Here is the input.
Amino acid sequence: MLTKRIIACMDVRDGQVVKGVQFQQLRHAGDPAELARRYNVEGIDEVVVLDITATIETRQALARTISAVAHEIFLPLTVGGGIRSEDDAAAVVDAGADKVSLNTAALRNPELITTLARRYGSQAVIVAIDAKRRDAGFAVYVRSGTSDAARDAVEWAREAESRGAGEILLTSMDRDGTRAGFDCEMTAAVSNAVNIPVIASGGAGGREHFAEVFTRGCADAALAASIFHYDDTRVSELKRYLDTQGIPVRL
Here is the structure.
């Protein structure tokens, strides 16, 4: 059985890590390199850096921040934000990223997924989906959650996989920053619709939430930000707990 991954996410604005609630009310959470150094020691499995205003401000993700984080860790690093072309992806990889995350650009130009998968391999291409519950489905939003994409999350995940995506990073906008638990129903709906790994994001508040999303939500990995940034939950303690629950993790 494949081990479940625990991923720390750093939302970066102006070179600093920030965190909000439902994509709003952002507050300072630390220096990216310092947090990366701590996570590397604590045993996190992967790190994701998202330049959350890059798409809105029409600029590339900050290469200096990416390089500083990559220098501190010896594990997979994913970078997203402002990646709109093959050249943008190449700049991120050159700065130290192992994987690139596409969101708005993938919806506007789905062929970019295929282009990057051919260049770097599907394992290096993540399609990020930010979604909210709507009626009986899950509506996709873009531009850092500010615009309705008029797409369903399950249907879009299937298309992203068919175009070469190697993973789906699924964020519940309803749960983001609330610490009320992951949206297991949405995560399971997407996980059961695709054959590639799905990373659950949005709502982590305690170790029980991780166990729940790995079992009920069928997630392959779970991502969190604030509970790790503010040291509310230690990665090592979380993994020991999951191990006692029979959930395979890298100890």
Residues 5-244 form a domain with the TIM Barrel fold (CATH 3.20.20.70).
